[in-house]
Every structure is written in structure tokens, then in C-alpha cells.
Amino acid sequence: MNNKVIIFSAPSGAGKSTIVNHILSLHPEIEFSISATSRAPRGEEKHGVEYYFFTADEFRQMIAEEKFVEHEEVYPGSFYGTLKSEVERIWAKGHVIIFDIDVQGGVNLKRIFGDQALSVFIQAPSVEVLRQRLVGRGTDTQEAIERRVAKAQSEMEFAAGKFDHVLVNDDLATAYAEVEKVVNDFLSDSASL
Ligand code: 5GP
Fold first, then answer.
1. Which of 12, 29, 36, 107 is the most exposed place for a label (fewest CB within 10 A)?
2. Residue minimizing CA distance to atom 12 of ligand 1
């Protein structure tokens, strides 16, 4: 069976979801891993689509029952994690799993899945560009932007050398071409089957 996984991690503002969605649009055999979270749904988000939503108590209970492959308190009070049942659900269909996950979670998943995994770190071209993107988004206060930029800086330092591939997301067309090649090479590499 084709038990492969592709992991995408990035600091916020680096363009991770755009790249993950691009890959999903090209590969019907790749399926998005729906994470569990204890944060509240945003906007139109629905249970079982973007996330499986739980209360913090339910989440802690599931941690105690060892239902997670990995889990993190990504922001204070907000838990996120990959359920073992989600991995089994996708592999049972013969699909390859794609993860959109924070940097620490990405490193943990790579450690768990080893050669079955391709891990890609998406990097904004520079801290200054990242700051400009967050300003351009217009959804964060100045203070929140500085907090996110500082977090991104430490994540970039932490990530160095821990991922199979680092993708610098400067020009989107170039990033798409590069990520398509890395993913295709990984999918056609029978050594890791
Ligand atoms: P958001 O709340 O904006 O949807 O996600 C916040 C962060 O949590 C993002 O960096 C996202 O990639 C990360 N995240 C989503 N699912 C998981 C998960 O299952 N495990 C971990 N460790 N992080 C996750």
C-alpha cells in the first residue's frame, strides 16, 4: 500500500495554505488531513471539514486516551493535533496524506513517519517581506504583527536543517513549479513505498 505522507509547515504569512491547496488541486490521490482543535470555529468553518472541533476538556481526554499521533498547544489554551483515526481513514482509501501543521508538529511528524514522509518548510523571502504581508492582510494589530514576526523568526531558526526541503515563497509561480517537482519526485520514488 502507498502509505505516504507530505508535511507542510511554515511561519504564518509564508503562504502555506495557498501552496497546500495548489497541490490538492493537482492530485486527486492526495487527501488533506483534518486536524482536531480546541479553538472555536471561525466564519463558515464546519466540524469535519476544516477541523474536528472539540472543547479543551474533550481534547485533554483524547490525549489521555492516546488518540493522537501528535498534538501541540499552538497558542495558549488552543490545542491542535493529528488523530490516529484520521491517518488510518486516509490510508485505508489508498490516498497520500497532506498535513498543514505548525513547525514543531511538522518536525514531530517527520520523526514519526521517517522515509514515508516528505517534509517541506515554506519560508517567506525575508522577515521584512513577512511583516509587509501581515500588514497587507489587515487582520492583525501592530502588536500582533510584531508577535507573529518574532515567532516566525524563531521558527525559521528552529526549522533550519530539520526539513527535507525548504521552499522560499518569493514568486508564487516559481514556488508552484518547485513544489510540484518535489512532490512528483517523492510520489514516484518507489524506494520509500
Ligand atoms: P489556525 O488556527 O490558523 O487554523 O492554525 C493555527 C496553526 O496550527 C497553523 O500553523 C496550523 O498549521 C497549525 N495546526 C493545524 N493543525 C495542526 C495539528 O494537527 N497539529 C499541529 N501541531 N499544528 C496544527
1. 29
2. 101
Domain coordinates in residue numbering, the chain: 1-13+21-29+99-193, 33-93
CA of 122 to the centre of ligand 1 (A): 14
Distance 12 CA to ligand 1 centre (A): 10
Could you read off the pLDDT tens digit of each residue along the chain, which spans 193 residues?
459 999 999 887 778 899 999 999 999 999 999 999 999 998 999 999 999 999 999 999 999 999 999 999 988 889 999 999 999 999 999 999 999 999 999 999 999 999 999 999 998 878 888 899 889 988 888 988 888 888 888 888 888 899 999 998 889 999 999 999 999 999 998 654 4
Task: State the residue for C-alpha cell 522577515.
Answer: 127
Q: Is the CATH code 3.30.63.10 the one for domain 33-93?
A: yes
Polymer length of the chain: 193
pTM beyond 0.70: yes
What's the fold here for domain 1-13+21-29+99-193? Answer: Rossmann fold (3.40.50)
